[in-house]
TrEMBL record:
Family: Belongs to the FTR family.
Domain Formylmethanofuran: tetrahydromethanopterin formyltransferase Ftr N-terminal: 1-143
Superkingdom field: Bacteria
Record organism: Ramlibacter agri
Enzyme kind, highest EC tier: transferase
Protein name: Formylmethanofuran--tetrahydromethanopterin formyltransferase
Gene that encodes the chain: fhcD
Length: 302
């Protein structure tokens, strides 16, 4: 199928179940909340090597935060609730509690509770104080600029990881422009794009010729290997970029993929992206299958 000159594969993106949580970071000024959020979601691109996948969901006005200060919402995803709890505690302890004027709150009301400030309170060395407001326990931990306030627990729910789009383009400039437009359109509540700028060039396949590696380069989409390995690329394709999506629900991942496809299609084939496809493993990796033809923007005609 071609839409606006761009080939849309009759395939699907295969995604898998993850555990997810939302955290709300506030601070005296917006800048400090954003700095803490950026640090807390650093090196969180892939569960393969980072332990979790994370990103900034969006900024919050003082009217939207528990303590009436500027805030930032972040999402974290991991393959198990135990690993996610470990990542939450480590990242909040090292990147949020350390950042001037910040406080940390749970961004979900439902789900399985895991420690947020429950263990971090011991940094207070006995000077920490608990406060219960409207049935929710918070910890006030003394620090050098005042107090670090942390809600005792956050909530963990089921999430979806690994939604993806592959953009095949004539050259680097066209691929970057298309991927940037798509990533910008895909940023919406309930979704993160965990890779730098939302875009990844080292798309992977499951497994490797080296037994110690769980994943390795996806040679079928590497232009430099065309003619030497099994290839998915025509002669006109010289650059491929991928966008990976994690979402709080199956619907949020689908909405983001639809928005990304619409952004690329609106630019047309003349902009240099000639084909949109997606990564899957024959249905063996995960239960969530996002079929590209079903995600075409409303009114799109072949």
């Amino acid at each position: 199928m071609r839409v606006n000159g761009i080939a849309i594969d009759d395939g699907f993106a295969e995604a898998f179940a993850m555990k997810a949580t939302r955290l709300v970071i506030t601070a005296h000024e917006r800048m400090w909340a954003m700095l803490a959020a950026t640090s807390a979601t650093g090196m969180a691109t892939s569960v393969i090597g980072c332990g979790c996948e994370g990103g900034i969901e969006g900024e919050l006005s003082p009217q939207e935060t528990p303590d009436g200060r500027p805030g930032v919402s972040i999402l974290l995803f991991a393959v198990s609730g135990k690993e996610l709890a470990r990542q939450v505690e480590r990242r909040v302890g090292q990147c949020v509690m350390t950042c001037p004027t910040t406080a940390i709150f749970a961004g979900l009301r439902e789900g399985e509770p895991v420690p947020l400030g429950r263990n971090l309170r011991f940094f207070g060395d006995g000077w920490q104080i608990a406060k219960v407001i409207a049935g929710v326990r918070y910890w006030r931990i003394p620090v050098m600029d005042g107090e670090f306030v942390a809600q005792e627990t956050t909530r963990v729910v089921k999430g979806v990881g690994g939604g993806n789009l592959l953009l095949l383009a004539r050259d680097t400039d066209a691929a970057l422009a298309g991927a940037t437009a798509a990533a910008q359109a895909m940023r919406m509540p309930g979704v993160i794009l965990p890779f730098p700028g939302g875009v990844v060039r080292s798309g992977s396949k499951v497994g490797s010729k080296y037994s110690s590696l769980p994943a390795s380069t996806n040679e079928a989409f590497c232009p430099s290997l065309a003619g030497r390995a099994r290839s998915e690329l025509g002669e006109e394709v010289r650059c491929v970029l991928e966008i990976v999506i994690d979402g709080m629900t199956e619907g949020s991942v689908a909405a983001a993929m639809r928005a990304g496809m619409a952004a690329v299609i609106a630019r047309g084939a003349q902009a240099g992206v000639s084909r949109i496809t997606a990564g899957n493993y024959g249905g063996k990796l995960g239960p969530f299958h996002f079929r590209l033809h079903q995600l075409l923007p409303e009114g799109a005609a072949p």
